[in-house]
Specification:
The chain is mainly beta. The chain contains four helices and 27 strands. The strands form six sheets. Strands 1, 3, 12, 13, 14, 15, 16, 17, 18, 19 and 20 form an eleven-stranded mixed sheet that branches. Strands 26-25-22-21-27 form a five-stranded antiparallel sheet, covered by helices on one side. A four-stranded antiparallel sheet has the order 5-10-9-6, with no helix packed on it. A hairpin with a 2-residue loop joins strand 12 and strand 13. The longest helix has 10 residues.
């Protein structure tokens, strides 16, 4: 079966790496990490000052070189001497000191100056995952652990963290009247769709994210997102679709996932990249092992049978001509499990089904 295979998994063992150029690990191998814990750190120097000797004194390059007391990369404190030149018989001493706490960035003999960087802005990258640090290499940290995973088809936002709150509005629209300030810090799930005004209010009251089946273009407009963009926008909020952009109901296995993880801590990565190496949003939920059984099934990802699940699948011997006029490999699906009102056997394009676990 081809196409995007959406993962819905319980008790999934994983190994994942977190890395960023220019960042340094601040954890050790073997240590336990939590999702919001700092994993990598970077110091971006954003203020500079030039301390120039030539503004006040006249010395040669050789005298400047001999009198330097610092070198590039040195950490210094306010008041530390940078240069000193003793005068004859100890008289007429020339010196310059650092006006700030910082680091020696550049030494210019031509200008007889020392350029200092100071007031660094520290940026942290969180672990995102809950687990054990397995390996550290340069600016990369590998983590292993166990979690419950729901993969979405599209999302906007960055990495957010919070507890799962299942609203159980599986066939309903989330509206402003459904929200209150007690939902601050939560990831709202179990929703068919949402109004633009509800998204605005959710962000205002501190909701961390919303996971739903589908959303209108107006919802993305509220978030300042262009849906056609190849890479989704970074926000301090996450909105993820489990199904598609057009109207759709939640899959039964997704509903089951939300039922089983309600109230647990989770990490949401809403970043999406459709082309050039597909990246899909992921919801990782952290908690104890969940005891659940499953059986295989086959889900349809094309209308008019979107989200219908069947018990068995068999490739057609020859290419099939479908009502749309497309001729392609087909699959016969038998034994409908999610909708007993349709006929017992249907044929769909092979690229439009995925093998899934049906949770009991």
């Amino acid at each position: 079966m081809s196409g995007f295979n959406q993962k819905v998994c319980f008790n999934l063992k994983f190994r994942a790496s977190r890395s960023q150029h220019g960042y340094k690990p601040i954890v050790t191998e073997g240590s336990e990490v939590l999702p919001e814990q700092g994993l990598l750190i970077s110091e971006t120097k954003h203020e500079f000052i030039e301390v120039s000797l030539s503004q006040y004194y006249s010395v040669s390059k050789e005298q400047f070189r001999r009198g330097l007391l610092v070198k590039q990369g040195d950490k210094i404190r306010k008041g530390d001497p940078l240069f000193i030149k003793k005068g004859l018989l100890g008289l007429g001493e020339i010196s310059m000191v650092s006006p700030v706490d910082g680091e020696v960035l550049i030494i210019s003999e031509d200008r007889q100056a020392v350029i200092l960087s100071f007031n660094p802005e520290r940026k942290l990258i969180p672990a995102f995952y809950k687990g054990t640090v397995l390996k550290i290499e340069n600016n990369s940290v590998e983590i292993e652990g166990v979690g419950h995973l729901l993969q979405c088809v599209y999302g906007v936002g960055g990495d957010v963290f919070g507890k799962i709150l299942n609203l159980r509005k599986y066939n309903e629209t989330l509206r402003e009247s459904d929200l209150d300030k007690s939902m601050a810090g939560y990831i709202l799930v179990g929703i068919k769709t949402v109004t633009p005004d509800a998204v605005k209010l959710a962000r205002e009251i501190g909701v961390r994210g919303i996971i739903l089946a589908h959303a209108s273009e107006e919802v993305f407009d509220v978030l300042g997102v262009e849906v056609s963009s190849n890479v989704s926008k970074e926000l301090d909020f996450a909105l993820c679709l489990t199904e598609r952009f057009s109207e759709s109901e939640l899959q039964l296995r997704v509903i089951k996932f939300f039922e089983m993880v309600d109230g647990l801590d989770c990490s949401v990565s809403a970043r999406t990249q459709i082309r050039a190496g597909s990246i899909r949003p992921e919801i990782w939920v952290w908690g104890d092992e969940i005891s659940i059984s499953s059986k295989p099934g086959y889900r349809v990802t094309v209308d008019p049978y979107w989200n219908y699940v069947f018990a068995s699948a068999e490739f057609c011997k020859n290419d099939v001509t479908f009502p749309s006029g497309i001729i392609c490999p087909g699959v016969k699906l038998r034994g409908p499990l999610s909708n007993t009102t349709i006929k017992a056997e249907v044929t769909v394009p092979a690229a439009c089904i995925e093998e899934i676990d049906i949770f009991n």
